[in-house]
Automatic annotation (TrEMBL):
InterPro entries reported for this sequence: OMP_efflux (IPR003423), TolC-like (IPR051906)
Protein name listed in UniProt: Outer membrane protein TolC
Annotated compartments: Cell outer membrane
GO-annotated molecular function: efflux transmembrane transporter activity; porin activity
PANTHER family, per the entry: OUTER MEMBRANE PROTEIN TOLC
GO cellular component term, pick one: cell outer membrane
Ranges in coiled-coil conformation: 169-196, 351-382
UniProt source species: Arenibacter nanhaiticus
UniProt similarity note: Belongs to the outer membrane factor (OMF) (TC 1.B.17) family.
Length: 456
């Protein structure tokens, strides 16, 4: 055995402590180091880590297991039974005494059998014909298709939610940047106005007007900072990240909005069979049709077969595992045929209800088709309007900036009042927010149109 001296042990201990400290630091760094995402990267990340997406995957897996569960009911079923009985007080029977040479008319109490019994049996059951079994397999397949379509719908909804949340974070960031610049300019104007008033070259009202505007902008800035934190946490939640985790966005709002302007999307054909909502309502119709077939199948006979093999042993004491125990074998083969004859019109009522449910589903299918066509037209109109509003807001922002700049010069030269300057500034701030919101609208409306078209 190798012996270590105190110096070696101390060195080893220090090495282990250093390693653990380094590992802890690396883990802490990896947890605190912010993750960066473009919009597409955020969407792809969410499609794998979003909580609803994860459960949609589980629902699909559950549907596949349910299909096999249904199939298995029609396959051979083998069950084993083991039983043990100990008659603590055996039942007494009376037999005529004359059987044993006794007085006629009298009875002798006797006990039949032994008090302890053990038995073991294996039974094989096989379904031969059951109309509901075939329909059950078809229904399981339909349910798998529904689960696949539900997973697809979840993915589209998650994608749309990520786009909206990502845009809201960018909107909050841009708002903060603009408001900070506006606040700096207003503080500069206010300081100059106060100095002019102190030197007798201006009036107090001018400074007060600027103070009102500055207070309003300062409040908006505080609110935007709070909103940025909330929108960031909302994005993290949708992406499946801890809401407190630091996250950075690689895209900027202006470039993202420019990339989302695709007029060719307005010319895309609307294939209703590709729409996931139409697929789901079609699944419902298939399910209702199968339910009607199921009720009709209840009037058909059911045929099952079984065979079992068992062995029983009797004893006065528990010695069933000994080599002297005697076991008696038995086996049975049988066939069960169940023929529905009369149900007091109960089956007929269930069949009629299933027929009504199918008719309702067909009506819902027609309604959904009409609603989706209308939704497509509305999404196209909203997207085109968002693009037009974006261009208008961009032009208006340029005009508002020039108007505010001119009023700044006029105010400095004493040619414009503080009220006129404040009016121009308020108009500029409104134009700035409308421009930012118009970019977000372009992004969101494009996503809404793509969702209807089932484009990813």
């Amino acid at each position: 055995m190798v012996q270590l001296d105190n110096q070696q042990i101390k060195h080893m201990r220090n090495s282990i402590v250093t390693f653990v400290a380094l590992l802890t630091a690396l883990i802490g760094y990896s947890q605190e180091h912010p993750q960066s995402f473009t919009l597409e990267e955020a969407i792809n990340f969410a499609l794998e880590n979003n909580y609803q997406t994860i459960n949609a995957d589980r629902d699909l897996l559950d549907a596949k297991k349910q299909k096999w569960e249904t199939i298995a009911t029609g396959l051979p079923q083998i069950n084993g039974d083991i039983g043990y009985q100990n008659q603590l007080k055996q039942q007494v029977s009376l037999i005529p005494a004359e059987f044993g040479g006794g007085t006629p008319g009298t009875f002798i109490p006797v006990v039949f059998g032994q008090p302890q019994t053990a038995n073991a049996k294996v039974t094989l059951k096989q379904q031969i014909f059951d109309g509901s079994y075939i329909i059950g397999i078809q229904a399981a397949r339909t349910f798998i298709n529904y689960s696949k379509n539900n997973k697809e719908k979840t993915a589209l909804e998650v994608r749309k939610a990520v786009v909206e949340a990502y845009g809201n974070v960018l909107l909050a960031q841009e708002s903060i940047s603009i408001l900070e610049k506006n606040k700096v300019n207003l503080e500069k104007n206010l300081l100059e106005s106060q100095k002019l008033f102190e030197n007798g070259l201006g009036d107090e009202e001018s400074a007060e007007q600027l103070q009102i505007t500055l207070s309003s902008v300062a409040n908006q800035l505080k609110n935007s900072i709070r909103l940025k934190g909330i929108t960031q946490q909302m994005l993290n939640l949708i992406m499946g990240i801890d809401i407190e985790a630091p996250t950075q966005l690689k895209d900027n709002l202006n470039d993202l909005a420019q990339n989302q302007i695709r007029l060719d999307l307005l010319e895309s054909d609307f294939v209703i069979d590709n729409n996931v909502d139409f697929k789901i309502i079609t699944n419902l119709n298939e399910q209702r049709a199968l339910e009607l077939k199921l009720q009709k199948s209840m009037a058909l006979p059911k045929l099952n077969a079984f065979i079992n093999y068992g062995s029983t042993s009797y004893s006065d004491s528990f010695n069933f595992f000994s080599s002297d125990a005697e076991w008696f074998d038995a086996s049975v083969f049988g066939v069960d045929l169940t023929i529905p004859i009369f149900s007091s019109l109960g089956r007929s009522a269930k069949t009629q209800r299933a027929k009504i449910a199918l008719d309702k589903a067909k009506t819902q299918l027609k309604e959904t088709a009409q609603n989706l066509r209308l939704e497509h037209q509305s999404a196209k109109s909203n997207y085109l309007f968002a693009i037009e509003e974006y261009q208008t807001a961009k032009d208006n922002l340029g005009l508002a900036e020039r108007i505010e700049h001119k009023n700044q010069i006029k105010y400095t030269e004493g040619l414009a009042s503080s009220f006129e300057l404040r009016q121009a500034q308020t108009q500029l701030y409104t134009a700035q927010q409308e421009y930012l919101q118009s970019m977000v609208n372009v992004i969101n409306q494009k996503t809404a149109l793509e969702t209807v078209l089932n484009k990813k």
